[in-house]
Amino acid sequence: MIETGEVHLADVNEERRRLVLVVSTSSFHQRSNRVLVAPQIMGAPEDVALPWRVQVDTTVFAIDRMRTVPIERLLERVDRAPSTTCAAIRRAVRFIA
After folding, report:
1. Whole-angstrom distance, CA of residue 27 vs CA of residue 18
2. Total-model pTM
3. Of 64, 74, 60, the residue nearest 29 (C-alpha)
4. Any keyword Iron-sulfur (predicted)?
5. How confident is residue 48, by pLDDT bands cut at 50, 70 and 90?
């Protein structure tokens, strides 16, 4: 079962695969067969301070660039964010919405 806060390597229909942070809940995944993800970004460290950016270890994810992908596009789980980061994900989504 895929859960909020997991980091996966995903095929997001680009030239290469990239890391994504799962933002959606397992109940959404079960009903839609899709996952709402935030992509990894490469950028300046000061970008982390933006309220719509979330950091997991040394990787920064852009909540403001979320999109849905089919579940089968998640290729492998590579990490799991701590519960404090999952709370930051919810705050970032609320900041945008």
Report:
1. 24
2. 0.90
3. 74
4. no
5. low
